[in-house]
Amino acid sequence: MPSPLQENMPKTGPLQNTGKPHILMSPPDYFTVDYAINPWMIEGSVDRDNARRQWDNLYNAITQQAGAEVHIIPAVEGLPDLVFTANAAFVHDDTAIIAHYKYKERQPEEPFCEEWFRNNGYRTVTLPEDLFFEGAGDALKWQDRVFAGYRTRTDIISHQVITRETGLPVLSMELVDNRFYHIDVCICPLYDGHFIYFPGAFDEYGLRVIEANIPESKRVPVTAEEAARFACNAVNINDTVIFNKGSDRLAEELQSRGFQVIQVDLSEFLKSGGSSKCLTLRIA
Ligand code: ARG
Predict the structure, then answer these.
(1) DSSP characters for 111-127?
(2) How much of the chain is helix, strand and coil, in % rounded to 5?
(3) CA 97, CA 89: separation in Å to the nearest integer?
(4) CB neighbours of 167 closer than 8 A, spacing ≥ 6?
(5) Shortest CA distance to 237 belongs to which of 95, 62, 70, 96?
């Protein structure tokens, strides 16, 4: 019998099988906030040296403590949000559906991401000009299905592309609060079926989708304060969960369910409306 952990390990796709999960990150060499496309963004507020230290701490937690392998997409001058690789694509096996950003500020990232995936052996899928989709920021796998958000950034029609290109069924959920503008800031599916979520980010229908799919014993709701500290924006690698510091209650709750929790200070990235999960993309 394979353990649940092995069952839920994504296939390696085109990357070399090193026995480790593969994560894509992009260093904050040109990270800044000089436009505001979500309600958290504070222009001109970033301390780039501090951002670099915080990013390094996240990188070290992922590689050394959680034991994943990190691949790097190089930073590009003038593309400050490229650090948020979660948005680059939705990846399943050897398919990468490349993001098409709603805001023109992020659209120039698209060809760099497409090129990275193509050069690394993925089959890349790009979207038509009028269809917006923000990658794994708005589409997260949980077991055999995908929870996907729409309205603020991603168009619901793009969810059909996920199913067409991967065969995975998609549960579409409307994001009703602008502060929780990507689904990865309000849910986090964990490898063993646990599911962290902020109920306030969804309408009654969205909550029913969660209730109908996730057994009650596996649901881990967070408070509004925790959600505002980006507690749902967590990186899960096997039994390790990494999130922005300051949510001790959630850390204890997860520890009591068998997880090892690492809290990393990511305050510089919160000024752009992102945190640990946004800074990473699981690619295998
Ligand atoms: N400033 C970025 C934006 O508004 C933050 C992206 C956060 N990424 C995420 N996966 N939630 O697009």
Answers:
(1) HHHHHHHHHTT-EEE--
(2) 35, 20, 45
(3) 5
(4) none
(5) 62
Which neighbouring-strand residues pair with 142?
145
Category of 246 on φ-ψ map: left (φ > 0), alpha (ψ -120 to 50) or beta: left
CA distance 265 to 254: 18
| Domain extent at residue 225 | 4-282
Residue nearest to atom 8 of ligand 1 (CA): 278
Q: Annotated catalytic, 182? A: yes
Ligand 1, atom nearest to 136 Cα: 10
Q: Which of 182, 186, 188, 194 is catalytic?
A: 182
Point out which residues pair with 43 in neighbouring strands. Answer: none
| Whether residue 71 lies in the annotated active site | no
Per-residue model confidence as pLDDT tens digits over 47-65: 999 999 999 999 999 999 9
Residues at CB less than 6 angstroms from ligand 1: 37-38, 41, 81, 84, 86-87, 106, 137, 182, 184-185, 272-274, 278
Amino acid at 196: I
Amino acid symbol at 209: V
Which pTM does this prediction carry? 0.95
Nearest atom in ligand 1 to the alpha carbon of residue 233 is 11
CATH of the domain at 264: 3.75.10.10
Q: Alpha helix (H) ranges present in 35-186?
A: 48-60, 109-119, 158-166
How many domains are contained in the chain? 1
Q: Are 222 and 247 in contact (CB under 8 A)?
A: yes
In tens, the pLDDT along 198-222 reads 999 999 999 999 999 999 999 999 9
The confidence band for 10, taking pLDDT boundaries of 50, 70 and 90, is low
